[in-house]
Design a protein that fits this description.
CATH class of one domain: Mainly Beta
CATH topology of one domain: Immunoglobulin-like
Strand order of the largest sheet: 1-2-3-8
Largest sheet: 4 strands, antiparallel
Helix content: 25-40%
Number of helices: 4
Order of helices and strands: HHHEEEEEEHEEEE
Structural class: alpha+beta
CATH architecture of one domain: Sandwich
Number of strands: 10
């Protein structure tokens, strides 16, 4: 009997060694939870970043932001319209009728106060003057705004119709009108004014555009619109 196999002092062989893969791995406690938390945070960060990129690119491509129909695009047009309207309001409006307004030429201030058309004859039943077409009466106030006496006459006071035809005053009709026309060589002292009547013989149906009034035959003159009546 082999003493190595029996007895209290028998030697027992440890047997063949265990292969490495048979050794059970050491368990890591808490490591899986940590990796899971880190992975979740990374995923959330990527989702937020992608959302921000999509939102910013979507805002740039928004058709409403570049469309001509959008309020932002149409605002400049509205602003231009408002600015144009403001300029139009500041711009002086064209006067179509100067009746009742004062106009100045040289040392005279003229105010046309009334226009009368359709008069066929001036004078009385015995003497007078008959119009070739019709007489037009232009009632005007003439004031001397200079510092010396000046003479006003019906000469050089030209009536203009809407066809740009020019008519001279009729001195004979003024003489027979029976009115104090005060338009023939009337002397006016400084600061004084006279009311005169200029008489013109024009075709029937004539529409009056304006009258050119002059301080003298050498003055530039001033145009008083009559409204086309």
């Amino acid at each position: 009997m082999n003493p190595d196999q029996h007895g209290p002092h028998a030697y027992h062989s440890p047997g063949p060694p265990m292969p490495p893969y048979a050794v059970p791995p050491r368990k890591r406690r808490g490591g899986g939870c940590l990796y899971g938390a880190i992975g979740g945070a990374a995923t959330l960060f990527l989702m937020v970043s992608c959302g921000a990129i999509v939102a910013s690119s979507g805002g740039a491509a928004d058709p409403a932001a570049t469309s001509g129909d959008s309020p932002a695009a149409s605002a400049p047009a509205g602003g231009d319209a408002g600015e144009k309207k403001a300029k139009d309001e500041k711009r002086p409006k064209k006067i179509t009728s100067g009746i009742g307004r004062e106009y100045r030429d040289g040392k005279f201030a003229f105010t046309v106060t009334k226009v009368r058309k359709g008069v066929k004859k001036v004078g009385n039943e015995y003497v007078g003057d008959t119009a070739q077409g019709q007489f037009v009466f232009i009632h005007v106030t003439v004031k001397n705004i200079g510092d010396e006496a000046r003479r006003f006459t019906h000469h050089n006071q030209t009536l203009i119709d809407t066809r740009n035809r020019e008519f001279e005053a009729d001195p004979e009709a003024s003489m027979w009108s029976g009115q104090d026309t005060k338009s023939f060589l009337q002397q006016i002292n400084p600061g004084n004014a006279v009311k005169g009547t200029l008489i013109y013989d024009v075709p029937r149906g004539t529409r009056l555009k304006a009258i050119d009034l002059h301080d003298s035959m050498f003055s530039r003159g001033v145009t008083v619109p009559l409204g086309g009546g």
